[in-house]
């Protein structure tokens, strides 16, 4: 059947480019391998030229894939499933890029793109290491290309193509028609939570960090492949620092996105996907420090091998976690199972076993490792639990081979307790322990799936992490501040104490001032945990002070040498910002009105959410808060609510504009996005937790209840009482100005709510051309409508009044507001840390 209106050329071109990318990367892998294995110089140069040409073809193919898919998305070619599933005509231009990485295929493409960029830097700078390092990078490119191949091989699907046609991927009656495209008017659009500017820049930076971890991994593998166990560590070090800087920046950009787009009231919630990106950063930091130890003392080469290899493996494991669908019920991130679990596992397992294959010294050992790899992967297709065993076996064999290989230089004498390398190694172990704890807890859903168990997550997820990581913060902060003052191999004790005297005294003084003025008021988990937070604050301050003073005392203000110290200062600032903001996060929106549409069983606590009736000033602690209006922005289709905050005792006044956007992707309801007022020392952060249905007022079926009332009598309603105070003919109120010339009779109704607040309503009659018309009036905050029905006895001063009580007439929102003191210290610390790491990269490159 020939389908009308389909544009098939972009998809065919895209498929061709994917195949070209896969073939070229496989050719580059083989050519690079032979380039460093060849003994003959001419043969080596020939293979190297071929490898570079193949990598060039691969780069052109990857760039072409990007351009082709962007054309499909931006041209709204909804005959392609990827465009239909992830985009729509209503999206702004910048969010069309976000459509790439909403889909898993696009994220693999992004990863592959960064490998191409890094590959050309390596070709330019790697020198003699180009062959072995680019062998690993090119093979990773081959593995990534298979992820977007989208073909069937002996009945098994290999990859998921972003160029697949909608009619080939879905079953629906319209696809039996040649003109089906006339019914496909628009796409599903981008997930509402991803429609934020952070999601345009956060994923590319994060994936650059993920991609960069392959370089120190490749150098480590290259060290074994070439037998040069010392030479690889020098070029690997700046790459390790670069990868850590970019990955850390990407992680914290994700935290900033969460802070601005998610409503869990913060920037970090120990979500499984957050954890999966954090863990490789921790092990990478451990590897950088052991790399430095080896460079300056000869210790810890084996640990450096292990940490760099494990860091890249953990990146692959995080890919498996987030794309296998196993975290679908435990993460706020929307990841689904594409039916590629076997391929994802194979991707992970190939690189896990690449390390022991490289480390195996004899042919027999290599064939044995290869046999275990093939056997476990074959069995995994029948019995899934073997996948976990295979992963652990590969890592265990690699660690065993590293630690028993006599060709790997290893100093056996005992390290000095007063040496810098000893405490740097302890710090590396602390980071590694932290990573093990986090990945262990995060992997519980994987364990449940593989082992068939039903281990439930802890009742308080955040505290289960925080109770351990607070001590990691204590130890890492102290070591960061102290270790800089030590020498490698040995440090005279008296000299060390003398150097540490002033940093310690200043850190104690600053911590005391912070605790006395700002304090840490998190007492929900008892005094012991609160005390631990105070100790952690001292350790964080110590890291800042100790490293700041070291720049002037230790390296005499030579900024070009201060990269590590600047990074440590930033790390300390991050810790201080976390402790002060999280330890003093304060709820501002305690409910003082007694009105709440929330139920005790809801996620949000009614006590901590204030309901704001439109136009009514509401008490919120030190603020009076008013919901004034809302409007829909046609550009981003978000409904913004203007909330005015006025300080009672001061002159501070500001507006917040939290918003909601209608959910898509099969989800019902609305997604709320927070807004914040930024001050140098704090943020006021707010988001909507409930809002009235704007259509409900037109659907209100509540009827008036009429009762004869004598002026001055007190009547009751569900939340208070009301009094008909007086009647007034032809009133001159501004409310009735438009009825000038008509005969009017107005009543004054005083409403006294149970909380003591007073409200007034002015219902009235209007007589015009012998017609009687009621003019009701509303007390919005109490959900009351009053109407005068007819006069009663004049002598008794009676009036029949109709009263309607209904929540449908209310225009209100329910708001949750926090105060985050010290939050900007966290963001500033991230910037300082990244700057310090990049300074170190520049310095290391200059020394090569």
Describe the 3D structure.
By secondary structure, the protein is α+β, with helices and mostly antiparallel strands. The protein has five domains: 1-195, no CATH class; 201-208 and 218-457, no CATH class; 483-584, no CATH class; 606-691 and 813-821, no CATH class; 697-806, no CATH class. Helix content is 52%, strand content 16%. It contains 22 helices and 23 strands. The strands form five sheets. Strands 5, 6, 7, 8, 9 and 10 form a six-stranded antiparallel β-sheet that branches. Strands 14, 15, 16, 17, 18 and 19 form a six-stranded antiparallel β-sheet that branches. Helix 1 packs antiparallel against helix 2. It is globular, with a radius of gyration of 33 Å. 45% of the residues are buried. The mean pLDDT is 87.
């Amino acid at each position: 059947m020939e389908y009308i209106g389909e544009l098939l050329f972009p998809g065919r071109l895209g498929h061709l480019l994917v195949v070209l990318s896969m073939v070229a990367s496989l050719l580059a892998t083989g050519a690079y391998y032979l380039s460093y294995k060849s003994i003959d110089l001419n043969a080596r140069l020939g293979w190297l030229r071929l490898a570079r040409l193949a990598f060039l073809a691969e780069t052109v193919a990857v760039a072409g894939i990007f351009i082709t898919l962007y054309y499909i998305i931006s041209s709204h070619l909804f005959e392609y499933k990827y465009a239909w599933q992830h985009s729509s005509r209503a999206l702004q231009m910048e969010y069309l890029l976000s459509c790439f990485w909403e889909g898993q295929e696009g994220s693999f493409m992004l990863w592959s793109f960064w490998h191409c960029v890094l590959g050309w830097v390596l070709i330019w700078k790697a020198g003699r290491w180009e062959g072995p390092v680019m062998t690993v990078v090119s093979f990773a490119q081959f593995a990534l290309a298979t992820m977007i191949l989208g073909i069937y091989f002996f009945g098994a699907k290999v990859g998921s193509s972003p160029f697949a046609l909608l009619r080939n991927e879905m079953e629906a009656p319209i696809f039996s028609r040649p003109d089906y495209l006339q019914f496909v008017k628009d796409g599903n659009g981008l997930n509402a939570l991803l429609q934020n500017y952070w999601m345009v820049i956060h994923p590319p930076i994060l994936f650059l960090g993920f991609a960069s971890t392959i370089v120190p991994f490749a150098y480590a593998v290259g060290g074994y492949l070439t037998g040069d166990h010392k030479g690889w560590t020098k070029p690997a070090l700046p790459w390790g620092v670069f990868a850590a800087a970019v990955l850390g920046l990407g992680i914290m950009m994700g935290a900033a996105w969460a802070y601005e787009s998610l409503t869990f009231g913060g920037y970090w919630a120990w979500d499984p996907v957050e954890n999966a990106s954090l863990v490789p950063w921790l092990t990478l930091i451990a590897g950088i420090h052991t790399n430095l130890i080896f460079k300056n003392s000869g210790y810890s080469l084996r640990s450096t091998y292990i940490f760099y290899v494990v860091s890249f493996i953990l990146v692959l494991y995080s890919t498996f976690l987030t794309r296998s669908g196993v975290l679908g019920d435990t993460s706020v991130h929307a990841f689904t199972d594409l039916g590629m679990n076997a391929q994802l596992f194979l991707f992970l397992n190939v690189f896990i076993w690449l390390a022991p294959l490289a480390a195996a010294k004899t042919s027999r050992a290599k064939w044995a490792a290869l046999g275990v790899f093939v056997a476990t992967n074959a069995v995994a297709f029948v019995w899934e639990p073997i996948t976990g065993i295979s992963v652990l076996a590969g890592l265990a064999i690699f660690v065993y081979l590293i630690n028993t290989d006599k060709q790997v230089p290893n100093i056996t004498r005992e390290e000095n307790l007063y040496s810098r390398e000893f405490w740097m190694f302890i710090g590396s172990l602390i980071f590694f322990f932290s990573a093990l704890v986090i990945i262990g807890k995060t992997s519980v859903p994987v364990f449940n799936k593989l082992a068939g168990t039903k281990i439930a997550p802890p009742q308080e997820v955040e505290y289960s992490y925080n109770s351990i990581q607070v001590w990691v913060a204590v130890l890492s902060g102290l070591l960061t501040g102290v270790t800089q003052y030590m020498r490698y191999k040995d440090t005279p004790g008296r000299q060390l104490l003398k150097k540490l005297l002033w940093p310690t005294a200043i850190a104690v003084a600053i911590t005391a001032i912070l605790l006395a003025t700002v304090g840490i008021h998190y007492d929900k988990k008892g005094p012991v945990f609160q005390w631990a937070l105070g100790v952690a604050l001292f350790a964080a301050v110590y890291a800042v002070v100790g490293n700041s003073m070291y720049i002037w005392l230790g390296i005499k203000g030579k900024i070009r040498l201060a990269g590590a110290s600047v990074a440590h200062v930033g790390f300390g600032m991050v810790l201080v910002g976390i402790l002060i903001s999280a330890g003093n996060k304060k709820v501002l929106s305690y409910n003082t009105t007694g009105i709440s549409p929330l139920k005790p069983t809801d996620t949000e606590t009614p006590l901590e959410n204030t309901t704001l009736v439109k136009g009514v000033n509401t008490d919120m602690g030190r603020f009076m808060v008013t919901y004034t209006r809302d409007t829909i922005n046609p550009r981003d289709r978000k409904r913004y609510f203007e909330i005015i905050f006025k300080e009672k005792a001061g002159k501070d006044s500001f507006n917040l504009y939290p918003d909601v956007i209608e959910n898509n992707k099969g989800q019902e309801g609305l997604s709320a996005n927070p807004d914040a007022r930024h001050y140098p020392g704090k943020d006021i952060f707010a988001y909507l937790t409930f809002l009235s249905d704007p259509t409900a007022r037109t659907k209100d079926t509540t009827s008036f209840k009429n009762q004869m009332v004598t002026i001055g009598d007190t009547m009751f309603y569900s939340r208070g009482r009301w009094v008909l105070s007086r009647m007034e003919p032809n009133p001159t109120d501004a409310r009735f100005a438009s009825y000038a010339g008509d005969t009017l009779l107005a009543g004054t109704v005083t409403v006294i709510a149970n909380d003591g607040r007073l409200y007034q309503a002015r219902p009235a009659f209007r007589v015009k051309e012998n017609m009687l018309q009621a003019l009701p009036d509303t007390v919005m905050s109490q959900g009351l409508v009053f109407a005068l029905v007819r006069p009663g006895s004049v002598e008794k001063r009676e009036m029949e009044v109709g009263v309607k009580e209904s929540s449908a007439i209310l225009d209100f929102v329910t708001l949750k507001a926090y105060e985050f003191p010290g939050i900007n210290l966290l963001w500033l610390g991230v910037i300082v840390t990244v700057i310090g790491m990049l300074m170190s990269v520049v310095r290391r490159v200059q020394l090569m």
